[in-house]
Amino acid sequence: MEYVMAQRGARSAFVPERLTVERQSPDGTPVTVTLSMAVDAFASGMWRKILKDPARPGMLVRRHLEVCVFSYLAAELRSGDIAVAGSDSYANLHDDQLMSWEECTPLIEKFCTEAGLRPRPAS
After folding, report:
1. From what superkingdom does this record's organism come (predicted)?
2. By CB distance 3.0 to 4.6 Å, which of 3, 14, 77, 120 could disulfide with 35?
């Protein structure tokens, strides 16, 4: 998650697999740390296929990475394998924040175009 949080302001189409950041150690001194997103360690083969661009070794497709990480995180939250401290004080995601299929349907084609995906499966 630290890698994802470090990329929070990224707007480019690609982000590096490895990222060097500065943070403070427990005693307050600055420390340089290299963070990496090892997609091979957690992402399925289908995800890896769209996360990596062979023309850009060492880089990941940012938008796909964001969806991948948060999809896995959501699955872990649902299963109870991950918990978020204080989450009971937030709104119910399923009831309050997710769009219905009726709201999503008109947006699918535009989203797929922006994400570089086919709006409809190939025959």
Report:
1. Bacteria
2. 3
Tokens found for residue 20:
């060097």
Residue 65 has pLDDT above 90, yes or no: yes
- pLDDT computed for residue 95 by the predictor: 67
Q: What is the pLDDT of residue 9?
A: 85
Q: What is d(CA 35, CA 111) in angstroms, rounded to the nearest whole number?
A: 30
Record the tokens describing residue 115, joined without a space. Answer: 């994400």
Domain ranges in the chain? Answer: 2-88
Per-residue DSSP letters for 10-67? Answer: --SSEEESEEEEEEE-TTS-EEEEEEE--HHHHS-HHHHHHHB-TTSTTEEEHHHHHH
Give pTM, 2 decimals: 0.63
Q: How many CB atoms lie within 10 A of CB 55?
A: 6
